């Protein structure tokens, strides 16, 4: 019952704008919708809005900010007030700061990440249109995900950031990872939609970005994604497997700046009254990689 | 932003309770959770609540009622008030009227169907549990859908019933079918979740039931469903195909009383700001059966 | 233990050469490898030889001939002798009769169809090459089958044509359809490889062509094939389903001249010692279309 | 054109007969067809012959022998003669040495492994039967492969063992791995059927067993296999991925004695005239694991 509709965009810091654009357009298969000297704007084929990924030229990789789309400006104002009451530093991003975007509010969440909320963005539409549409357009390239799906961030205080997203922004916690004694939460999976997660946090350094997940249709599309990555000689960190958490099917890899990407399929549908699923830390390997049953070092360590 | 969480149950009228239970348990693969002399209660393996399908002994097939689960009794009261204001006949279903259910409100929607809203039902849980769960349980039988997914009903006044569900109950219209001149709406696909539809109406006689859709995971599960139906010599009305509307993958068939069932996979994810997709009546065949591109007579005529 | 390696090519009569080429190249997704004023030569992406489909300009649709590739000219001579002994009319097709082909022998089988055997054809290779190849090439178009898989022909005397292919050419019968009294064979599925069939015959008029089957990888590729056909407004005669016979997954449709095509996936692997599977005529519907359990009229009647 | 039809059986040495039988029956999903004090005999659901896996009580794991089925005793004699001429040590295994088997010939191949050829084994059949069969039987358990598919063995002299299988037994080499200078063959993939491989050798110690591959239908069945292994807490060495070599989809794991198993799907179809595909040693990682692009230590080292 939140007024937040979904994850709307992630702005990623990349070191070589052209090389990154080539990767996100030809390997991931996003469409470029605009660019200026500092940023390239991209959308997935099945998204209606102007962009969901912004590549921003920077000296180091990472996430500049992620943003959630809110139903309307009135609801945005209500949320702004609640966020300030929670004690977050908050500012306004004015119209025209980035291409095709209206006003946004920007604030620092308890893990130090910058998050924005907005309701105004240019409508672009899709190539199948909205009248008697085909199920998919011609001329798809690369992995061709349907949309940006979710992000995973790290932070020190998982309890507080979870409280912020659930109590202030109306997310539900679909799953959590707790220490074996049950005393501490070290992972938190948060949904604002009926998908298994729109955002997740795991214990780690503040302000760090773990990955952005793109939605692909099914397990065969995960295979196709992995094939395309290998054809393009892109290092696959985690080859196709299933998550215990979300039950989703997945492959992980890195963009040219070292930002981790995921092609993700088929997590379950969840509802507001579903109980939060609990994973105990001793089973975290199984929770993250259901087939491997253990974490690999890079997956915990490689953050941007 | 509705307080309605999802389709919660459908009570189907069946002529032979035992034969129907055998079908829903061994072919569909639901679990029986309770029964009395008049009704058998069933749930899908991935549902937490006590039941989503009730089979009720009757002289003729059809739908006794369908019900949506609301977040809490307070929200239920607000909705009750709105429904009365809209002018629907409304009554209270008292605690204990059916097994494992609390109070509900029951009302007649503009197409004459009986619909209930409730927030209280016994929690049963699933066989994988909520602590370090496996992605699926052992000993699944039959088609083994994850959950009840949606229903399709027929009625004369699609415009008004759409207005009722959107304005009063907070559904969004994901897709619609209109006459070629655009004057009249003859199909309406309504979502209260992020799935492509939780309920749909097509032009036809009032009070009639077209089908109940069960969610299966993917296109291979649709094949498995069709194989299982054929192994059990159950007539498949529509062999595996894709819908234009919802993009879902589907197979249609009938229960022993003639109530139509569907195994449905993979419709798109939709959000509150997505435009309503329009199908024109001349393309209705493609909209319903994307590969066949035309309707078959039985699909319009066989209603219960 | 036959010296015949596989179905090598089918020459189809088509009424409009350009329109047909457009269909076979852009919808089916074959590559054009040569053409002259009368014929266009095509291969599938995963075939090494110069062509597997020849389109020949004609006044009526149908199959000019189909041909099997034999291991070497010596074995071809042995087979030539056996075929003559069986009593077939036989002639030599000289080098240069068609592009990229060497000599062939041509003969009329008991159902009146023209069949050729050859061992010499130009080697073209595939886009993935034979050194450290990727599993699939870039820039696939349309349905993009791996290869020509099999053909189905009709004829009056199924027993004799079966005897010809098994006794003279070394095929095995993987499956057969017989009248309920077991007296007469009305369908015969013949394999020269370990696939479920390379050639099949069903009772019907002599000299007629039922369909050419192209191999696609899996059930999702069958869905993709059907989607592509619908996107191209090509009539799908049989939407995605499973065969009882061969267990394969299938979709049937027609080329612009009315020659039936099939995208076929996943039939079983068979061996020389496997028993012939028997279908009785009363179950022929289930044998052909496992989900529908009955034949449709067009499938028996539309022949070229 | 060989008289060898397929890989017929592998006899595996296992240390705990009951524990191993439990694994092969309930996790792999084979059926037990016979047992005595020393051996348990198993078949896959889609195999007609009495057994394809024999578990033999032993002090150490490994392969006692593997055997190929030959068309008839006459052809067996011809092969016996050729094998002796090649210089292999050869003996007769007399009728009754193992349950349900007739006579066999047994010989040591150039890598020191014991191999048998036979034509006589009891016919058991399948649960779907050979008259109007369903595509799959009810009550499948575990991974439920269709059949034993292939084996991979190690040895010092890959060239000679390849020459033995191609020149003496009529196998074709579908793929090979060579040193970068092209001087030495270090991997050899051999087919006697139209599948991508029935037997393979990689450079390593003589007499060692690398894995037995079981055929599953498709990429979703590979996922199901991996899920089942994880549910049963069985270590998965290689999570679902694609092979460059054969293009097959795969998951690797171990039986309770440490013998490696594979669930394998979807390799290509190959023919006698196809060129041998070459992988250079620098690309061996990509050849074996197309997504990972490098070998893992255990995969080379863990042999039985």
TrEMBL record, chains A, B, C, D:
Keywords: Aromatic hydrocarbons catabolism, Dioxygenase, Iron, Metal-binding, Oxidoreductase, Repeat. It catalyses: catechol + O2 = (2Z,4E)-2-hydroxy-6-oxohexa-2,4-dienoate + H(+). Gene3D superfamilies: 2,3-Dihydroxybiphenyl 1,2-Dioxygenase, domain 1. It comes from the Bacteria. Its cofactor is Fe(2+). One of its GO terms (molecular function) is catechol 2,3-dioxygenase activity. The keyword Ligase does not apply. PROSITE patterns: EXTRADIOL_DIOXYGENAS, VOC. Pfam families: Diox-like_N, Glyoxalase. Residues 6-120, 147-266 form the VOC domain. Its EC number is 1.13.11.2. InterPro entries: Catechol_2-3_dOase (IPR017624), Glyas_Bleomycin-R_OHBP_Dase (IPR029068), Glyas_Fos-R_dOase_dom (IPR004360), GlyoxalaseI/FosfomycinResist (IPR050383), VOC_core (IPR037523), Xdiol_ring_cleave_dOase_1/2 (IPR000486), XylE-like_N (IPR054560). Homotetramer. Belongs to the extradiol ring-cleavage dioxygenase family. This is Metapyrocatechase. It comes from Bacillus songklensis.
């Amino acid at each position: 019952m939140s007024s937040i509709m979904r994850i709307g965009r992630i702005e990623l810091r990349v070191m070589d704008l052209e090389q990154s654009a080539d990767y996100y357009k030809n390997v991931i298969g996003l469409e470029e919708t605009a660019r200026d000297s500092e940023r390239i704007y991209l959308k997935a084929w099945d998204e209606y809005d102007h962009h969901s990924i912004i590549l921003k030229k920077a000296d180091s990789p990472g996430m500049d900010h992620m943003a959630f789309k809110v139903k309307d400006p009135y609801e945005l104002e209500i949320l702004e007030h609640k966020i300030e009451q929670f004690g977050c530093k908050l500012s306004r991003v004015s119209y025209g700061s980035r291409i095709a975007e209206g006003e946004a509010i920007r604030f620092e969440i308890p893990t130090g990440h910058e998050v924005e909320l907005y309701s105004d963005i240019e409508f672009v539409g899709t190539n199948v249109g909205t009248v008697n549409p085909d199920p998919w357009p011609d001329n798809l390239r690369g992995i061709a995900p349907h949309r940006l799906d979710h992000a995973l961030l790290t932070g020190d205080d998982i309890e507080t950031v979870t409280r912020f997203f659930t109590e202030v922004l109306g997310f539900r916690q679909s799953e959590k990872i707790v220490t074996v004694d049950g005393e501490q939460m070290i992972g938190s999976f948060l949904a604002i939609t009926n998908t298994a997660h729109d955002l997740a946090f795991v214990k780690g350094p503040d302000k760090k970005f773990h990955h952005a997940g793109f939605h692909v249709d099914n397990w065969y599309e995960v295979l196709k994604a992995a094939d395309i990555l290998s054809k393009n000689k892109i290092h696959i960190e985690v080859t196709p497997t299933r998550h215990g958490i979300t039950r989703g099917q997945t492959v992980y890899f890195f963009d040219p700046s070292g930002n981790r990407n995921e092609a993700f399929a088929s997590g379950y549908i969840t509802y507001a009254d579903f109980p939060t699923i609990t994973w105990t830390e001793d089973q975290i390997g199984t929770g993250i990689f259901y087939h491997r049953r253990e974490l690999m070092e890079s997956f915990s360590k490689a953050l941007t």
